[in-house]
Write a structure and sequence with these properties.
Order of helices and strands: HHHEHEHEHEHHEHEHHHEHHEH
Structural class: alpha/beta
Helix content: 25-40%
Number of helices: 15
Strand content: 5-15%
Distance between the termini: 51 Å
Largest sheet: 8 strands, parallel
Bound molecules: S-adenosylmethionine
Radius of gyration: 20 Å
Shape: globular
Length: 374
């Protein structure tokens, strides 16, 4: 198969600006660098961008999409991100930690047959990591073949090690915002330097790491949007997500506009063209950025991972990222969306696909900045 260079791909996209011609499947060489033109593409140019991304995904993964479950186990959070409803200063929020026994029972006996992996997610809460997450991972490792991902924030190196030894292999830690000034203004977790240090450290100590960023935050311009893609490209990742900014009702940004779905999808497509091998999720917030269509369009713009929400109904409304009314991605909705797009659930787990990752000798720059509290 002919492998066009990044320059040829760019020429292909440029050539098709303003036209709607059919085109052949292109496989890119991984050195594609997106431009502001691609971020802002509309009409035929945008269709071409998304089609190239979909073709690249199909060329690498066929019609198979990874299906994971997620359980949100705590909404306690020591961070204070301006965009997030679980921020520390949101004193009116009822805080919860899930009960390990009932979660374990549900996951062993009642989980959907379609999931091959489980993601355990929480606010940044070291207490829940020790009391709930670690025992849960040990049980799942013993009793199931599920691949285990965690998304638990910036923790101490010893806790990362315990999680890995317990049987988790995929760490999801978004860098959130590549623009250091905007990162500070948004009070994103700790410091950007610390967050990037954690990503480098995790990748160097045996984890497959997925990161991510928020598209369309107030104050983000083309330069900072492109900086997100450029930072993602340089990090040692197995995957990356793009979440559209959704103004949270109970956050300081409640009056800000929702991210433009077109920008969000163009970022997803650009990521896919940059990294044909990556795991790129269709995030549930696509449903909020463009109700009825955003999620499906994400599946057509390079996504190859979907997530079924398994958080018990009694607690999930307080896992407040944006709005209290959540559009819960049930197994039925997820399988329906895949079928509608001509896609099918992968039977291979993410963990199996990515395989074990050898730890490399710790380098000076792989040590995360230490947190004082854990
Ligand atoms: N505490 C963990 C961490 O720091 O990685 C877990 C994830 S945190 C609870 C929730 C994630 O949701 C953040 O990483 C952020 O990217 C996303 N998020 C929160 N508020 C958001 C908003 N208003 N719009 C879009 N994404 C948002």
């Amino acid at each position: 198969m002919v492998r066009p260079t990044a320059r040829a791909l760019r020429a292909e996209i440029d050539l098709r600006c303003g036209r709607s011609l059919p085109f052949t499947l292109l496989v890119i060489d991984g050195s594609f660098v997106p431009t502001a033109g691609q971020l802002n593409a509309r009409g035929a140019a945008q269709q071409t961008l998304h089609q190239l991304a979909a073709d690249s995904t199909a060329g690498r993964f066929g019609r198979k999409v990874f299906v994971r479950g997620v359980v949100e186990v705590s909404n306690f959070c020591r961070e204070n991100c301006s965009y997030c409803g679980m921020r520390r200063d949101h004193r009116a929020l009822t805080r919860f930690r899930a009960k390990e026994e009932s979660l374990t029972r549900m996951l062993l006996d009642e989980r959907p047959a379609s999931i091959t992996d489980l993601n355990i997610q929480a606010g940044e809460d070291p207490v829940v990591v020790r009391d709930v997450v670690l025992p849960l991972i040990r049980t799942l490792r013993r009793e199931t073949n599920l691949g285990i991902s965690v998304c638990l924030g910036t923790l101490a190196p010893a806790l990362y090690r315990e999680l890995h030894e317990a049987g988790a292999s995929f760490y999801i830690i978004k860098f959130e915002i590549a623009d250091a000034n905007l990162y500070r203004q948004m009070a994103a977790p700790g410091t950007l330097e610390e967050r990037l240090g954690a990503i480098e450290h995790l990748a160097a100590t045996g984890w497959n790491v997925s990161s991510g960023f928020i598209a369309g935050l107030p104050g983000q311009d083309d330069t900072s949007a492109l900086a997100n893609l450029e930072l993602a490209r340089r990090l040692p990742l197995a995957g990356c997500s793009v979440s559209p900014f959704i103004p949270g009702d109970e956050t300081p940004l409640n009056g800000a506009p929702t991210a433009d779905i077109e920008l969000t999808l163009n970022c997803m497509a650009s990521l896919r063209l940059m990294k044909p091998d990556w795991i790129i999720p269709a995030v549930s917030a696509l449903n909020l950025a463009e109700p009825g269509a955003g999620y499906h369009r994400g599946l057509r713009a390079g996504a190859n991972l979907v997530t079924i929400n398994l958080t018990p109904a009694g607690i999930r409304d307080d896992y407040l990222l944006y709005k209290r009314e959540r559009f819960i991605m049930t197994e039925e909705r997820i399988l329906g969306a895949l079928a509608a797009e001509g896609l099918a659930p992968s039977r291979q787990s993410l963990a199996d696909f990515l395989g074990p990752k050898p730890a490399v000798a710790a380098q000076g720059n792989t040590r995360p900045l230490e947190r004082s509290t854990v």
